[in-house]
Each structure stands twice: as C-alpha cells, then as structure tokens.
Amino acid sequence: MIEATPSTARKLIDAVPVWDHHACFPLRPNDPAFLPQLARHKAAGFDAITVNIGFGEQGPEEHLRMIAALRHWLMARPKEYLLLLQADDIERARSTGRLAVGFDIEGANAVGDQLSLIQLYYDLGVRWMLMAYNTSNRAGGGCQDEDGGLTSFGRAMVKEMERVGMLLCLSHTGHRTVREVLAMATQPLIFSHSNCAALHPHPRNIPDELIRACAATGGVVGINGVGIFLGKNDISSETYARHVDHVVQLVGPAHVSIALDYVFDLRELEEHVEKMKGTFPPGLGYELGARFVPPEQLEEIVVTLQCWGYSDADLTALLGGNLLRLAKQVWKAPNHG
User: Fold this and answer.
1) For the chain, N or C: smaller number of CB within 10 Å?
2) Domain 6-330 bears CATH identifier 3.20.20.140
C-alpha cells in the first residue's frame, strides 16, 4: 500500500472531480464582499461547490433576490466561475481551471404556497431543496419540532421536484416526514449535509436506519463539518473522517459525499441564531458557537482516509463521483421555454 502523505492526497485531489455539496454564504444580496472567498474552495482542490440561496423562515422574495445577486456576480467572472447547471459542467470547469457553482435551498418556505416556483428555481440553478429546516412548515415536519408527517402540499412538492429533476433533500427534516417521503419517492434521495447519530446523538443527525433507507434509493449522505454535529464541537479531520467511515461501513462507499456546510460569515450566523430562537433552541449546542471544518482541511481528510486503507476508487467516489452519478441520473435539461 502506498504511504499516505499530503502529496499523495493532493495528487488524487488534482486527478478527480471534487465537489463540496453545501456551503453557506452571507445572505445579503446587495453585499458581495464575501463572494471572493469562493476562491478558497478552488485553491483547496474543489472543482464544484453548491451554496445556499436561503433557508428556514425566508420566503420567495428573499430567495429570488439572493439567487439573482449570486448569478449576476458569477456571470460577470466567466474566467473564474461556471454556473453548475448540468453534470458535464464540472468537467468543463476542471478542464478550464474554473470553479463550478450551483445552488441549493434549505426548506420549503422558499416556494410559499406556489409549487410552480420549483421549476423557476431549477431553471436558475437550484439543484436540491430541503423539505423542512429544523421546524415544521407547509410541507412537513422539522427535525427539532413536532413532526406531523408529510402534508398533502408536501406530497405534491415531492412529485413536482421529481418532475422537474431537482434532488429532494431530507437533512434538517423530521424523521416521520423523512420516512413518508421515502415511501413515496421514485428517485434517489439525499441527506445533503447530515451526520451520524450513532457517533453523536443530536436531532440534526440521522440514525443508521435512515442512512440505510437513503442508500436503498440509490441516494447519498453528505457529511457536514459542523463541530456540534460531529461531536463536542470537534472539527478535527479524524472526527470528520469517522462520520464518513461510519456511512461507508453501513452502506458502502457509493453512498457518501462531502458537504462541509462551511459558514463564511460567523457574525451573520450568530445574528441568525439569536433572531431565530425557535429554529436554534438552547440546549442543542448552538450556544457554544459553531466551529466548522474549512475547505482547506480537504487534503488532511483525504490523508486520514488513505491511512485507514481507503482505495483511490473509494475516495474518487466520495470526493465527487457519487454526486456526479446522481446529477446524471436525476437532473434534467433546464427549461428555457
């Protein structure tokens, strides 16, 4: 076996598609000051990143304003960035030295009571959306709330997302609602950024039963780098890798990915936690001040997994190959009328 070193990790990272499936930029459409920090992902070895355009209690206007601002900023820099609209865009970005950037939405409040917005969001570049964000909404239950299950609106939302080609994400969602989505879905599902409850019990983490159920659909569990979900606010590469490895031991390397959930503006996060106390209640670790695995830790994570005997094929799958498989299977050509 080849000795695992930073150079062996970097060689693999440079040779294969690498995709961070979730990161959080400041949700201020008129303030692009943090956007140049996207370059940190490219420098760390990522070829693609998915960033959120809104979450939680925010409604359609906030989401549409944010995606308009992000698209405008990215399209003004075509030599550095590429909008991620189809799976082939990741190879296009790799071959031209750019970073492919796609979008996600954290919760059904983004569509209000208007399911036709799902098609619009998809056409603008949103490639996955949560059912709920911690608290319950019109579609179903949140993971930190009373979970009454999937509503009739939620069932219609599942069908519309499948029709459009948008991946349906079950992170932040109540477990009863998750099971009811699993029962009706006809396409692979994702937990875009959820960790393992078996390693650290927390309402945001998911039990082995749901990891297996997700994998049974052909789906993928993305491991986030949030310290309070990894356990004891520990963001070491070994702790992160243990959550990756737990999923691999349960369901194999074809059903796990990287989704660091890195927050670029901690001050804004603190403001959200203070303002949205129902979404971030005390006693669950939010008051500790969240720590995050940064994109620059990628190389060390890969070294750790190599030291544990992970093959290049396994690492290629979890670094980006599994997400590319889902993109090719589920995404549809954008509708331009």
Assistant:
1) C
2) yes
